Amino acid sequence: MGRLENKIAIVTGAASGFGRGIAEAYAREGASVVVADLDGQGAGAVSEAIGGNTVAIKADVTQRSDVEAMVAETVQHFGGLDIVVNNAGVTHNNKPALEVSEAEFDLIYAVNVKSIYLTVLAAVPEMEKRGGGVFVNTASTAGIRPRPGLTWYNGSKGAVITLTKSLAAELAAKNIRVNAINPVIGETGMLESFMGVPDTPENRQKFISTIPLGRMSRPADIANAAVFLAEPSSQFITGVALEVDGGRCI
Question: Where are the beta strands (DSSP E) in 174-236?
Fold first, then answer.
């Protein structure tokens, strides 16, 4: 029996990277999974590749109407909602804080922070009907060990961590757990933006040299943590921001 048997989950930003890894792992562990992404075609391809009890939904997590529709469609299709993984995220290219445009700043906070506000509004009432639920938010080591060049992105992830802890305290009375994952720089589509330089073996090595376990994070690393934080065996864990970083933040 899977570790998430009979659970119904939404994973945002699931068309690629960490989100895809999480959706695949959840399905493998027996959950019914909504593969949600702004890239509807990509979400459909991932859902088709996973097969089983999955459905793809195109959703812009910065828009209240999209988020409400995503939750409503999940409930209509699967009969409820137990888990929301707020994984959709965006960054600006690694560059001085003064060079980040207002449009870039607004998008980062809309995707990385406002999306959590919107999913909480839409999902909590449905979780209450099930007697509880779980939120897993993809934050970042950038939220606790910020470095120059990604200042506004770092701030958005700091917000995710603080929101996670505050929501955990507030929603505990409803038996809703809220946890976050702090990945270190990973082998995903946003890698070059984080690095601010071309993705070459030499440039990768500069970043890898700061990670004690000697490699970047992979979708499977984040997915394993996301399964653990959502499964019943972690029922007494809430308000944590789990570092999945190969020792980067030591």
Answer: 176-183
Residue range 201-212, pLDDT digits in tens: 888 998 899 999
Assigned token pair, 123? 């999902």
Residue 133 bridge partners (DSSP): 176
**Could you tell me how many residues make up the chain?**
250
What's the sign of the alpha-carbon dihedral 180, 71, 235, 43? Answer: negative
Tell me the pLDDT tens digit for each residue of 17-66. 999 999 999 999 999 999 999 999 999 999 999 999 999 999 999 999 99
CB 239 within 8 Å of CB 178: yes
H-run or E-run covering 154: helix 151-171
Give me the phi and psi of 242, to 5 degrees please. Answer: -80, 120
Q: Which residues are catalytic?
A: 153
Residue 235 neighbours by CB under 8 Å, 6+ apart:
177
Please, what is the average pLDDT of the chain? 96
State pTM to two decimals.
0.97
Identify the helix (H) or strand (E) that includes residue 226: helix 219-230
Q: Could you tell me the pLDDT band of residue 111, with boundaries at 50, 70 and 90?
A: very high
Q: Which of 11, 15, 3 is nearest to 40 (CA)?
A: 15
139-164 exposure pattern, b = at least 16 Cβ within 10 A, e = fewer: bbbbbbbbeebbbbbbbbbbbbbebb
